[in-house]
Amino acid sequence: MSSDEGRPGEGMEPADAVRAALAEVLGTGEIDVRAGESGRMPDGGHVRLFHGAVRGEPNRTASVAVDESGGVQPRRRLEALAGRELFVPALAAPATVIAGLGADPVTVDPPTNTWVLPECVTEDETVTVTIPESRIPPKADVYLLADTTGSMVSIIGAVQAGIGAIVNDPAFAGFDLAWGAGNYKDFPVGTGLNPYAFQHQLAPTPGVAAVTAAVGTWAAADGSDIPEGQLYALQQVATDPAIGWRTGSKRIVVWFGDAPGHDPICSALSGVPDVTEATATAALVAAGITLVAVSTDTGTAGALDGDPTLGSTDYAPCPVGGSAGQATRMTAATPGGTHTIGVNAGQIVGTLVSLINAAVHAIADVHLQPTGSIAQFVTSITPPSYGPLPGNTAHTLPFDVTWTGVVDCEEDEQTFTGTLDVVADGVVVATKPVTVTVPACRWHHSVEMICGTSKGDDKCETVVDGRYATAVTIYNPTTCTVTIVKYFAPLVLDGRAVGREPRTVPARPFAKLELAPGTATMDDCCSLEEAIGPKSSQLLFGVLDIVADHPLEVTVTHTAGHPVSSIDSRTIRPRKG
Length: 577
Hints:
Layout: H1 14-26, E1 31-40, E2 46-54, E3 57-66, E4 72-73, H2 75-82, E5 107-109, E6 113-116, E7 122-131, E8 139-147, H3 153-167, E9 176-184, E10 198-206, H4 209-216, H5 230-239, E11 250-257, H6 267-270, H7 277-286, E12 289-296, H8 326-333, E13 338-343, H9 348-361, E14 366-372, E15 378-382, E16 395-404, E17 414-424, E18 427-438, E19 443-454, E20 466-475, E21 482-493, E22 496-497, E23 508-515, E24 520-524, H10 529-532, E25 540-548, E26 553-561, E27 566-572, E28 575-576
Parallel strand pairs: 6-18, 8-9, 8-11, 11-12, 12-13
Antiparallel strand pairs: 1-2, 2-3, 3-4, 5-7, 7-16, 9-10, 14-17, 15-16, 17-18, 19-20, 19-25, 19-28, 20-24, 20-26, 21-22, 21-23, 21-25, 26-27
């Protein structure tokens, strides 16, 4: 402007001059005006920034600056005169710095396991995981996702001015951090309203230079109606391989904006299957992402949690749907997710520092994961997981693990190996080796043994009166020496039923021997003293199980005397198990 044109708003009160200047830029007097950041010119003069937004259209915004004399100036003109950025927001106090990576390792007790698990055998154990203070996954990817529509001008400016404080937080020392960046606007795209719905700018990259440059390109503009396109952006961040999440890294998306998201984003606008709150949430969960959301105070009521059906004016042919509370629900669905509300431009940098610090140090999820060929034997882990857990305290986490024999025996012994891993936020932080042995099949020769004298009564009789004896012959017809273990389960002992249903009696081992090729041996009622001790003349009845590593020729012979003598003999068919 020429020197004789005067200052904008000359002769008016400063507040009126600011409103008039903003109304001229925005083309309407129906505006809300809010004071912004302060600064000083090189000569010490005080300057102040003011923001204006059209009522009901928070993305139609403009900003002007007021110098110490009350004159209204374009912001960029004052900064050009000063030769530097003038309106840098004061940073809110950062969160307490959490201790860095601890030196002590995560431990597992017991540190190893060696199980012998025949089919259907179950073993239970308690696995205790100890996580020392601040011992968390060594790698984390932090993706900054910003709403860059017009209403976010003061927030975007504050983040750009404070990006150094965000990414250089000393609490991150010792961690392998990578920073990614992207921003979203809205649909429709290519109609003069929005240049894109989502722009992925930077895959997670170590160091601070790349993310600083990416954030520096953000420009708060466009958007038109109130709801925005963040559901599409969030689903892309979770599913698009181009995002470039690093293998083995904890994944954190830091999302900030001031309006809810259109729901659904239909295929007619996006060119992909309909995107909804449900599909975006499912994608985030499946990708193992921790979602950290920040609602700023620069837009509509409720910000990210606002009602997406209000103010949706340019969304045909998509239906208008969804409900308030999107950010709260979506963050709650992800491990360690949080939603912070009511953040202004002066608070945004300090808030992001604190939230990113907490998300990186916190452990959202800790669980046990069996790997290798032993995984099939783990039939339950209780609880399934722990979290979220603060990173600035030690944790002792017990898991009850059930191991079950699920593999059929074979002729030879089978050995399975693997590990039981401690996984924290997708990263293996400790492991214990496990070996499971499935014994080779054994041949069972099960026969009934009846010995002694029965004196039946009028109530019930296990066998009728008489004198009984049993002989079991065992012959090895093979060319191998056969190892035999003998088991006995007494069902009637000294004439008293001890194993009548519903009672049961375990078969217990009582003898072990090796039978050479072509040799034989015998068990009879006298042999059972090895199993049950000296017996009386009363009735003994039970099951003898001859377990061998090869099939044998086994014959059982029963004899009875008084009142009628009898003899019965049969060959026992071996069963493999």
